[in-house]
């Protein structure tokens, strides 16, 4: 079966800027500093492009993981998709959509994944992984909002979440 969730985040810049920052390896690394995430193979800096891969190494849930993702869809500045090609999941797909709003951009993250190990993996998805991954993406988006506000001189991000996660 697998699991899925959706997160909506409002960003204070036009879609073109939000899109570009979302593809930036450095911005991703800054947003994942708490897990010690590093880009260790493939594209390791700059902006990732269609067809390129990046291999991430990070500590999550007390375990060091390696996961290689490839950008499989890139429609500037509206959509891109990254999918796991090697790593801990049986399947992992993250679709990023960017919609212009009167105040900037609404970024929609749609994540679908399947844990390994059959029925045991399904239980882990429901008990641990969905919530953990959702919080990881919320934190990533909070970091993006903070960077974008700093660029504009709008001050720091308020303490309330930058995203309104809705699980589907």
Question: Which secondary structure elements does this structure contain, and how are they paired or packed?
Answer:
Layout: E1 3-11, H1 15-22, H2 25-31, E2 38-42, E3 53-60, E4 63-75, E5 79-86, E6 91-101, E7 104-114, H3 118-152, E8 163-166
Antiparallel strand pairs: 1-7, 1-8, 2-3, 3-4, 4-5, 5-6, 6-7
What is the percentage of strand-forming residues?
35-45%
Q: Biggest sheet, open or closed, and with what strands and sense?
A: 8 strands, antiparallel
Mean pLDDT: 90
In whole angstroms, how far apart are the ends? 14 Å
Discrete helix count:
3
Low-confidence stretches: 155-168
Shape: globular
Rg for CA atoms: 15 Å
Q: How would you describe this protein?
A:
With 168 residues, the chain is an alpha+beta fold. Helix content is 30%, strand content 41%. The chain has helices spanning 15-22, 25-31, 118-152; strands spanning 3-11, 38-42, 53-60, 63-75, 79-86, 91-101, 104-114, 163-166. The protein has an eight-stranded antiparallel sheet with strand order 2-3-4-5-6-7-1-8. The longest helix has 35 residues, at 118-152. The relative contact order is 0.24. Residues 155-168 have low confidence and may be disordered.
């Amino acid at each position: 079966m697998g699991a899925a969730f959706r997160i909506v985040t409002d960003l204070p810049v036009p879609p073109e800027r939000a899109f570009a920052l979302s593809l930036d390896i450095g911005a991703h690394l800054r947003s994942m500093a708490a897990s010690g995430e590093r880009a260790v193979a493939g594209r390791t800096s700059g902006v990732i492009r269609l067809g390129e891969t990046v291999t991430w190494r990070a500590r999550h849930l007390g375990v060091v993981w390696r996961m290689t993702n490839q950008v499989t869809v890139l429609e500037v500045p509206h959509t891109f998709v990254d999918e796991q090609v090697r790593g801990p999941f049986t399947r992992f797909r993250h679709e990023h959509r960017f919609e212009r709003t009167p105040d900037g951009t609404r970024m929609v993250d749609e994540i679908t994944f399947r844990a390994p190990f059959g029925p045991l993996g399904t239980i882990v998805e429901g008990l641990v992984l969905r919530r953990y991954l959702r919080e990881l993406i919320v934190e990533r988006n909070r970091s993006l909002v903070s960077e974008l506000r700093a660029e504009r001189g709008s001050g720091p991000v308020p303490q309330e979440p930058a995203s309104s996660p809705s699980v589907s």
